UniProtKB/TrEMBL annotation:
GO terms for biological process: response to cold; response to heat; response to salt stress; response to water deprivation. Ca(2+) 3 binds at residues 295, 298. It comes from the Eukaryota. A pair of annexin repeats may form one binding site for calcium and phospholipid. One of its GO terms (cellular component) is plasma membrane. Ca(2+) 1 binds at residues 25, 27, 67. Belongs to the annexin family. The gene is LOC110766695. Signal peptide: none annotated. This is Annexin. GO terms for molecular function: calcium ion binding; calcium-dependent phospholipid binding; phosphatidylserine binding. Ca(2+) 2 binds at residues 253, 255, 257, 297. Keywords: Annexin, Calcium, Calcium/phospholipid-binding, Metal-binding, Repeat.
Length: 314
């Protein structure tokens, strides 16, 4: 369930006018910006952007970029984008890092529906004039490249049908590959990148029942390399994304120096999807409410914005 508390009665024109007043003159009224945009869903935000451009002949996103700063500006920019465009931007940023952030690519390719992933690939190509898979292939190598390109180009079956016999046989294939430390076996990549999420859950359950340990735990031995870690993230994202995102948030908050990029990414991308469930997992795991942990590790308008997206008033 979502944490976003969206306004039911809103006027895109009135919102655009308030936003215009908040960015005119000396200084920006950040509280007014948060009070509006942190309480509007994706469709409403799109209508506001259209109304703003029609009224003032300028792009609201660009205006906010010029008026805001720091982590708050980055978070607001991510938030106001159309969700598919947002994922395209997140993927591009991850690819262009000095060392590609494969976790972000895995999150996008493994937690979205087939239709959503296809829309992200289209948005990426429209924005950057390159395909997502082309840029991935250019900035990665070896087994990581094979895995990530396979994940972003897949179009999984999205139904509920399960083939129990197939789950049994593919659980054995995965177990043999892990036992032999053949993590990069083409069958491992094929299974994880093509099977439906429902089918994969049956396979992972069969693996646990047969071998007394979850496949994700079996992957992370003491000497796990980057490819093993990537496979682990794939399985976590496919099997239980809410628990995966709780862990991302926990690590972002508890590390020495908060990881604002990860914190922003999860809150902004999940606020309209399942952030309420992620918050519950966080509390069970840490005995601290997520909004309290975020408030403790952030400050100013950035804090106010994130806490509002979490369903609380700062």
């Amino acid at each position: 369930m979502a944490t976003l508390i969206a306004s039911e009665n809103f006027s895109p024109t009135e919102d655009a006018e308030v936003l215009r007043r908040s960015v005119e003159g000396w200084g920006t009224d950040e509280k007014a910006v948060i009070s509006i945009l942190a309480h509007r869903n994706a469709a409403q935000r799109y209508e506001i952007r259209l109304a703003y451009e029609e009224l003032y002949h300028e792009d609201l996103i660009k205006r906010l970029e010029s008026e805001l700063s720091g982590d708050f500006e980055k978070a607001m920019y991510r938030w106001i984008l159309d969700p598919t465009d947002r994922y395209a931007v997140l993927a591009h940023v991850a690819i262009k890092k000095s060392e590609t952030d494969y976790n972000v690519i895995v999150e996008i390719s493994s937690t979205l529906s087939p239709e959503e992933l296809l829309a992200v690939r289209r948005a990426y190509q429209l924005r950057y004039k390159h395909s997502l898979e082309e840029d991935l292939a250019a900035h990665t190598t070896g087994d990581i490249r094979k895995l990530l390109v396979a994940l972003v180009t897949t179009y999984r079956y999205d139904g509920s049908e399960i083939n129990a016999k197939l789950a049994n046989s593919e659980a054995d294939i995965l177990h043999d590959a892990i036992k032999d430390k053949a993590f990069n076996h083409e069958e491992v990549i094929r299974i994880l990148s093509t099977r439906s999420k429902t089918q994969l859950m049956a396979t992972f359950n069969r693996y646990r029942d047969d071998h007394g340990i979850s496949i994700s735990k079996n992957l992370l031995d003491a000497g796990a390399d980057n490819f093993q870690k990537a496979l682990h993230v794939v399985i976590r994202c496919l099997n239980d994304p809410k628990k995966y995102f709780e862990k991302v948030l926990r690590h972002a908050i508890k590390r020495t120096g908060t990881d604002e990029d990860a914190l922003t990414r999860v809150i902004v991308t999940r606020a309209e999807r399942d952030l309420k469930d992620i918050k519950e997992f966080y509390y069970k795991k840490n005995s601290v409410h997520l909004e309290h942990a975020v408030a403790k590790e952030t400050s100013g308008d950035y804090k106010a914005f994130l806490v509002t997206l979490l369903g609380q008033e700062a």
